[in-house]
Structure formats: structure tokens, C-alpha cells
Amino acid sequence: MMPPFAGQGLNSGVRDAANLAWKVAEVWHGRADARLLDTYEPERRPHAAATVAFSERLGDVVMTTSRRRALVRDVAARALLLTGPGRRYLTEMRFRPRVRHEAGVVAGAHPLTGTQIPQPRVLVPPSLRPRLLDEVLGDGPALLGVDVPDAAWARARAAGWPGAAGAAVREVEVVLGDRLPARPGSGGRSLTPTGRWRPRWGPRGDGSCW
């Protein structure tokens, strides 16, 4: 049972569904072995357990009966709200447990392995109109590469990525820097509403998505 204090009950349910639904579909349609379903628990249990524990701790802070602890809580919260980073830390709940898969459908030892991809706005030529990353990727599996040479893409295809069994994989090449044509006055970069510089994305010459 998820305590209510962090507001993560529905969110955790959505994460469970997002993790399991595509795996059930792949197995049902014969595109994956049934062992894929075994990856659900090792991927979701650690984060779900951490979120329950976090919600319990947050409840101890929110519902404390100690005047001293309540005073410290209120003073600290007011102080954080006086600064931009502190306000974002509280309002965006950046103190929540981070989602990271240590086991399951993961491979590699990169520091970002098993972590979530953010939802930036990306630029897609020729219009360079900002779009959400999910809109660019679409449904189904996608293979992303940052500055990946053509030979590496060929090796990935030869290795039989998911999609060789029936589900098309969209290849997405992430282009960093100022290598795409910019709108006049844009400075050659995409500026998101958060005020941070983001990478650019664009379509490959064969019509697939970069």
C-alpha cells in the first residue's frame, strides 16, 4: 500500500503499466520470449519499495506532532522557496527516489544505463519547429545514438535488434552542437521553456527520424 504523502500512488501504477504492457504485447504476439515478463519485478520492485519508504518518511515530516520539528520544517521550506533552485527543488519534488534499473532489460556500464530519458523539446528540420521527444519517437521501440558512425549503425542492425522479429525499430541519431541550419536569430540552438540549451534532432535523409 502506497502512503499518500508523496502523491505517488497513481504515478507508481502508471509506471507499472508502462513497464509491463509492452512486454505482455510482445510475448502475446510472439515477438519475444516469455522470459521477458520476468524482468518486470527486478525493474520495478526496487523503485516501488524506495518510493513507499520515501512516502513514509515524508509523512513523518508532514504529520509531525513535535513543535520543534514542525518549526524546523517550516523555516527550511520558507528558506528554500526564496530561491529559484530551492523553489524548483520543492515544487518539482526533486527529492523523490530516482528511477534506475539495475537489472532486467538493461545492458552496459555507462553512468546513464538504466536511467530515464527526459522529455525535452527537440527541433526537427526542415521547419525546426520544437516538438516533444515522445512525438518524434512515436510508438514502439526506438534505437538512439549520439554521434554514432554509419558502421556502428550497420553493426546494430546486423546484431538483430528488436524489430527483426516483426516490430519496426525507429533509428534516431542525436545531433549535438550547431550542425543543423538555424532559424535567423536563434543562435543555432534550441532553447526550451526551462531556459536550458538542449540537443537538436532532425530527420535522416532516407525519411527515418534523426
Structure write-up:
By secondary structure, the protein is of the alpha+beta class. It folds into two domains: 9-91, no CATH class; 121-198, no CATH class. 38% of the residues lie in helices and 10% in strands. It has helices spanning 9-28, 40-62, 67-81, 84-91, 133-137, 150-158, and strands at residues 121-124, 129-132, 142-146, 170-174, 190-191, 197-198. The strands form three sheets. Strands 1-2 form a two-stranded antiparallel ribbon. A two-stranded parallel sheet has the order 3-4. It has a two-stranded antiparallel ribbon with strand order 5-6. A hairpin with a 4-residue loop joins strand 1 and strand 2. Mean pLDDT is 75; it is low at 181-210.
Short description:
The chain has 210 residues and is an alpha+beta fold. 38% of the residues lie in helices and 10% in strands.
